[in-house]
Amino acid sequence: MLFIDDKDPGLIPRVLCTILDSCVNGVTLADPDMEDLPLVYANKAFADMTGYTQEETIGKNCRFLQGTDREQEERSQIRTAITNKEPIEVTLRNYRKNGELFYNHLKIIPLFDSQGKVLYYLGVQYDITTQVLKEKEIERLSGRLASLKNSF
């Protein structure tokens, strides 16, 4: 869907920011024309999820959320997708401002202009920590159950 803006040229960005700030998931925009693809927008849900204010986030590449936990295969998958200007979905181990681990299901979508040039990379972040921890607990209990069955 395209917006036709014959009104105030700043109306659409203001309306979109209001809409995005009411979302429950994190939403970010990274600028591919700037060095290191820094964030130029982060909504309120992103700040709530990470514990970082918008002032602490804007101008940084999102990888700061990984802290020192850089050995994640998904990082190279993201680099490849960005190089190829393709969308990608991955789950990363990220860390809140207070150091707490959370699992971030990240969807990155390149946004193109009419000439096919990437204007921004849209990032949508889903905190799936509860789901991941429950899956790990199910695996642990299933393993325990299997070992108990084998002992009989």
In short:
With 152 residues, this protein is of the alpha+beta class. It is built from five helices and five strands. It has a five-stranded antiparallel β-sheet with strand order 2-1-5-4-3, sandwiched between helices.
Low-pLDDT ranges: 1-7
Fraction of residues in β-strands: 25-35%
Largest sheet, described in full? 5 strands, antiparallel
Question: What strand order characterises the main sheet?
Answer: 2-1-5-4-3
Radius of gyration: 19 Å
| N- and C-termini, Cα separation | 62 Å
Could you please say which CATH topology applies here?
Answer: Beta-Lactamase
Shape, please?
A: elongated
- The helix/strand series, from N terminus to C terminus, equals HEEHHHEEEH
Average pLDDT, to the nearest integer? 89
Topology readout:
Layout (H helix, E strand, L loop, with lengths): L10 H11 L4 E5 L8 E4 L1 H7 L3 H4 L15 H11 L4 E8 L5 E12 L5 E10 L1 H22 L2
Antiparallel strand pairs: 1-2, 1-5, 3-4, 4-5
Please name the defining characteristics of this protein.
alpha+beta, single chain, 5 strands, elongated, disordered N terminus, 36% helix
What does this structure look like?
Helix content is 36%, strand content 26%. It has 152 residues and is an alpha+beta fold. The protein has one domain: PAS domain (Beta-Lactamase), CATH 3.30.450.20. Strands 2-1-5-4-3 form a five-stranded antiparallel sheet, sandwiched between helices. A hairpin with an 8-residue loop joins strand 1 and strand 2. The termini are far apart. The N terminus is likely disordered. It comes from Nitrosospira multiformis (strain ATCC 25196 / NCIMB 11849 / C 71). InterPro entries: PAC (IPR001610), PAS (IPR000014), PAS-assoc_C (IPR000700), PAS-like_dom_sf (IPR035965).
